[in-house]
From TrEMBL:
This is MFS transporter. Its main location: membrane. Keywords: Cell membrane, Membrane, Transmembrane, Transmembrane helix, Transport. CDD domains: MFS_NepI_like (cd17324). The lineage of its organism: Bacteria, Bacillati, Bacillota, Bacilli, Bacillales. The keyword Transit peptide does not apply. It comes from Bacillus kandeliae. Residues 1-371 form the Major facilitator superfamily (MFS) profile domain. InterPro entries: MFS, MFS_dom, MFS_Efflux_Transporters, MFS_trans_sf. Signal peptide: none annotated.
């Protein structure tokens, strides 16, 4: 049931990138301006996730999940009916708040239904709901937008939102309520250097990956004569589905999420580098998008697994923080991408900026492994 809700969020969060041309035509705005609709959604997601994790700690989890998904559905009704671009931006802000409340709580709750040795798979399956929303929802949404109007796609999201709400109401069991931690304990999470470095890795990778994804509708026509954006989104989404659903098994089997993160970040960087190199080489042109999607989606579960190991008593807050930082990175990436396009630097510059931020994330990951993976014996020697 939680995965169905995440499916709906994934559908809505990633469809806007494909709808930018239609929304631009409706409200007479350029691509960089419409791209800020993604920034607004992700910014409010980023702010609401940790805020609600604190304010609603100790409340009945099922009611919060139901309320947040219902609010998310109403926000998308407003998106479909928005008479002006300002109202459309407001609706995206409200949708972001609903998503920010639902997503981290759903991910954290998923681990309460399974034994400890299966937590990695529970995390990857729940997060995989978002990638399934991307794989199945985005191409369908683009097809509907091309055949009719982009607003019909938003109504599609509304139907899924209310269906998810009804399914959770009927079938989702009550979730054990975790007593809220003391203020001192909660603040200690934000002053934990291990947590800070971990979420900074998420932040930089998100700026690169999700920021670049936002402007695919502008990037693809500039790199190739192929105008069919849908196939590239299919490749990205299918990769995301594979990455998000399989990474949990690797986490549970190898039990070394930091090593997995190094592999993921390096592969993601190489895939972005290969986009302009392979974009005109027949079937190979879709390969970088597939790998990019797989690695981008696979990166979330190891990071959340690491944070849960650092802060086992504050699982929902730790997951909310990482989820928040992920979407904050997306907001920053979309904003920077809009500036790049508006300044006339060319869409190829988006790839260069993405590679730069992936380099930052890799440096931080190596620093984290060197700094925080020392054995007690090594630490005593260093002291």
């Amino acid at each position: 049931m939680l995965t169905i809700g995440m499916f709906t969020l994934g559908f809505d969060a990633y469809i806007i990138a494909g709808l930018i041309p239609g929304i631009s035509a409706t409200y007479q705005k350029n691509a960089s301006q419409v791209g800020q609709a993604v920034s607004v959604f992700t910014l409010f997601y980023a702010v609401s996730a940790p805020l609600f994790a604190s304010l609603l700690a100790g409340r009945q989890t099922k009611k919060i999940l139901l309320s947040s998904m219902f609010i998310f559905g109403l926000a998308n009704v407003l998106s479909a009916l928005a008479p002006s671009f300002s109202i459309f931006l407001l609706s995206r802000a409200i949708a972001g708040m609903g998503a920010g409340l639902f997503s981290p709580l759903a991910v954290a709750s998923s681990t309460t239904f399974v034994p400890i040795e299966k937590k990695g798979r529970a995390l990857s399956f729940t997060i995989g709901g978002m990638s399934m929303g991307t794989v199945l929802g985005v191409p369908i949404g683009l097809y509907l937008a091309n055949m009719f109007e982009w607003q019909l796609t938003m109504w599609f999201v509304v139907i899924f939102s209310f269906t998810a709400t009804l399914c959770m109401f009927k079938f989702l069991p009550d979730i054990p309520v975790t007593p809220p931690p003391a203020i001192k304990e909660r603040l200690s999470m934000f002053t934990d250097k291990r947590v800070t470095i971990t979420v900074l890795i998420t932040f930089c990778a998100s700026i690169a990956s999700l920021g670049l994804y936002t402007y695919l509708s502008s990037l693809i026509p500039d790199l190739t004569s192929d105008k069919d954006l849908t196939i590239y989104l299919w490749a990205w989404g299918l990769g995301g589905l594979l990455g998000s659903l399989s990474i949990g098994y690797f986490i549970d089997y190898f039990k070394k999420p930091k090593v997995l993160m190094v592999i993921i970040l390096m592969t993601l960087t190489v895939s972005i580098i290969c986009i302009p190199i392979l974009i005109n080489l027949s079937i190979l042109k879709y390969l970088p998008f597939f790998i990019w999607g797989a690695m981008g989606w696979a990166s979330q579960a190891p990071q959340q697994h690491i944070l849960l190991s650092y802060q086992p008593q504050q699982g929902s807050a730790a997951v909310a923080l990482n989820s928040s930082i992920n979407y904050l990175g997306s907001a920053v990436g979309a904003t920077l991408g809009g500036i790049v396009i508006y300044s006339g630097m060319g869409t190829i510059a988006l790839i260069y900026f993405a590679i730069l931020f992936m380099g930052f994330s890799l440096c931080l990951q190596f620093y984290s492994m060197k700094k925080f993976n020392k054995s007690p014996k090594q630490k005593s020697r260093a002291t």
